[in-house]
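REQUEST FORM: STRUCTURE PREDICTION
Request ID: SP-0412
Submitted by: Lab K.M.
Chain count: 1
Length (residues): 356
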Amino acid sequence: MKTIYSTITQFRGSHYDFGVMQGEKLRDSLSVINRENQWKVRKPRFSINVEEAKQAITRFAPGVWEELNGLQDALQWPIERVLKEFGGYRVDYVRSGCSVLTGDHYLIRNYDYHPKTYEGRYMLYQPTDGVGYAIIGPSQRVTGRMDGMNEKGLAIGYNFMHRKNPGDGFICCMIGRLILESCANVTEAVEMLKEIPHRHSFSYIVYDGNGETYIIETSPRGVEVRQSNACTNHFEIMKHENRNHLVDSKRRLDAMQMKQHELSSAHEAFRLLNDRDKGVFSDLYSSWAGTIHTSAYLPREMKAWFALGGDQGPTVIDFRKWLDGEELKIERITGNVDTNIPFLHMNEGADWFQSK
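STATUS: Completed
RESULT:
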C-alpha cells in the first residue's frame, strides 16, 4: 500500500490572481518536472494555435483565459507551453475507467486513471471579478476539473469512452471546468455540452438540486442525451462509438444497478463505490483504470465528500459555509492505494521512460 495525498487549496480573488497563485506554487514542483519528462517520451499529437484556443475558451468561460494569463506570468513560460500543459484544447488523452452513480440528492463518482497523471490538488475557488461561479473539486491539468460542484449546486462527472478519430476541441477535464464555471443547472449544462467542440468521446453526467440526472454522450461526431442514474465506460445510444472490449465497464455498471434500489442514503451509495469488495472499485492502476479517488456531491446540503483510495471514510467539506467566508482548517487529504507506481505530484520518476 502507498500513502498518497491531495493538497487543499482555497482561494478568493480574480481569475488572473488565481492563475498567478497557482503558477507560483507549481514552479519547480514535481508535477511540472515529471510532466516535462513525460513530454520527452510521448510527443504531442496536436498543434497549438494561440488565437484559436483563446477564442474557443473565451466563448464559454472568459475567466479561464485570464487564469491562463496569470499562470503564464507566474511561470514565465511562452503562452504556447501554458496552453500545451493547461489550456485543455486539442490535447490528446488516453484510456481510463470511472463510474458515476446518482440518487436521492447525491452524485458519487470513482475517478479511475493512472497514478503518473494524478496532480493531487483539491481546489476551492470563489471568483471576485464577476466572471464565473465558485467551484469545489479536484483539478486535472491545473485549470481543468475531474469532477466538481459549483455554487449553484450543479455537479458533474465524466467517463471515458475512447480516443479514436479525435477532433479539434476540448479535453474532458477542461469541459468539466467550463460547465461548472458557466452553468447554473442541468438544462444549461446539456445545452453547453451540445455546443462545446469535443476532442474525444466521453459521457458527462450532470446533476443539480432538482434531483434530475442527465447523461450526455459526446464525441467529435455527435452528442446524444439520455436520463439514467448510473454510467460507466460505454455509450447506450451511440453504440457504434463504443470500444470492442466492454466487459469490465458492463460489470461495474451491473454492480451499481443491482444494488441501486437497496441504497437508502448517500453514505450507502458512497460505500458501494468506495469499498474494494463491492465490485465497482478498481485496482487496475497499471492498466490506466485504478480508482484513485471517490467524490460525492450533495447539492441540497451543498456538501462535498472526498476520499483517496478504497475502504476510506470521506472527508466532508461544507461548501456553503466556505462560500459564506468560513475557511477550511485542513490543508491535506490522505489515503492509501494498492500500487507502487509513482504519483505525478509526489514522486520523482513519474514519467514514461520506464513503464510501470
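NOTES: The CA atoms of residues 250 and 264 lie 23 Å apart.
Reviewed by: T.R.
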